[in-house]
Amino acid sequence: MMNARKLLLGLALAAGTQASAATLVYGAGGEPVTLESGNLNDTNSAIVQNQIYDTLTRVRPGTTTLAPGLATSWTPNADRTAWTFNLRRNVKFHDGTPFNADAVVFNVNRWWDPAFASGYRPQKTWESWRLIFGEPRGKDSVLKSIRKDGEYQVTFLLSRPLANFPEMISVNFFGIASPAAVRKAGASYGTPGAGAVGTGPYMFRSWTSGAQINLAANPSYWAGKPRSDTLLFRFLKDPSARLNELKTGTVDFACDLNPDSLKAVRADKNLTAVLRPSFNVGFLSLNVRQEQLKNAKVRQAISMALNRKAIVDAFWGELGVADNSFVPPALAWANSKKVAATAYNPEAARKLLREAGYPNGFTLDLWYMPVSRPYFPTPKPIAEAMAADLADIGIKVNLKTEDWAKYLEDRNKAPGFDMYMIGWSGQYGAPSNFYDAFYGPGGTQDSGFDNAQVQDLLTQASSAKSRGQQAELYARVHELTNAAAVRIPIVHSRPLCAARSNLTGWVPNPANSEQFWTITKK
């Protein structure tokens, strides 16, 4: 059987041939950093992990509406400081070991507890927990403990109310891994050599660095047998290359295509344009530890110098929106009416630089991503456009980049990047998913902007029980973060995906969290 699969894969990859009906081929925007659940923060890793792992809760296709996953139901106590989850029975990991409460406790301890022996923290970063929940185990942790109440029930005990806890734990960062597989692989778990073991619709088979990942259907998947026998992820960094392979049929579906390819996709009778709902932000992040950027006037000048509307019109067309909000349009109820629309005003920017003591400008590094993302499909040309705007007010920019995994790591290492392009695709339908990840206690390493007032407002908002209370608190956060100009929103994009016309059953989720097992290839 394995020899037959290898033959099919060889045929699928041969130039000018069509992928076998038993093999589904996805054109990925880059190589995953890791396949270790709880230890990622990039979409390239998450989209593969979605196929290998299940989360306790998940969302319904095409929405941010919560649905059961490995938990069949969940209930809070009266003040929402405890959430109890009833777990799905008769589910096995790909290695044949049982899924149960012990497995959930093991995984949560890996993500949350720095002292947990199987976390291998000297070798690993474990940033995911910080991005969603803030500080790990300790006096500032929102999670006090996780308790096993029975073989198929666990309770999360919190230090403060969290109204959105079931949504937060649904994030695709938190796939449940096999404890036995983790213990066996040790610190190598999630790497190309060791692979990954979950309960999801597809099982890890191989990872060829720089080329592809091969997954096989899980015939015992609790939600139903996958429609394809093999799922292949090919690493195609260039959006044009992904589109060309879609046209030839060597790739069945792909995302993060250049927005200006929309017309070409619609004109090709063999392709179908698939627009992922907009639920992201692409932004320019500034490091307040850098000498010039310590000054708020300098940061505000940079914000005013960027002609964001022109940049978005040029690189996204109808698929992008420029505004002054860190949250996407779907969460606009959290915005402040006191914050004006994006203000392009180079003359006012020059004035601010003079007031800050830099009449002749200065030089900064601007780092751009080496891979296309939903929010920045063509990073280098976009960076060049921003550099031109900044040069107009006297700020000379050195453009830099590096390998994606190193880029993500180095931005958090002292002294950090002066300025860098990054973004965020939301994982659950609340403003906290955007603000907390970059302004909360766990999200300040790259920028040095550790603002207690903002963090206190975020804490209050995440505990608020009504939309009205949350709206008031997030409006104030919007005002403070806009004035700080540390994370400058550039775009909210509607990512362009496409599929061969013989594919059905693909419903992209706003949060890049869909599984591919329901896709049928005719």
UniProtKB/TrEMBL annotation:
Signal peptide segment: 1-21
Annotated InterPro entries: Peptide/Ni-bd (IPR030678), SBP_5 (IPR039424), SBP_5_CS (IPR023765), SBP_5_dom (IPR000914)
> What keywords are assigned to this protein?
Signal, Transport
Q: Which residues form the Solute-binding protein family domain?
A: 66-444
CDD domains referenced in this protein's UniProt entry, alphabetically: PBP2_DppA_like
Residues annotated as transmembrane: none
**Which Pfam families does the entry link to?**
SBP_bac_5
As for family, the record states: Belongs to the bacterial solute-binding protein 5 family.
By what name is this protein known? Periplasmic dipeptide transport protein
What is the organism field in this record? Deinococcus carri
Q: Which gene encodes it?
A: dppA_3
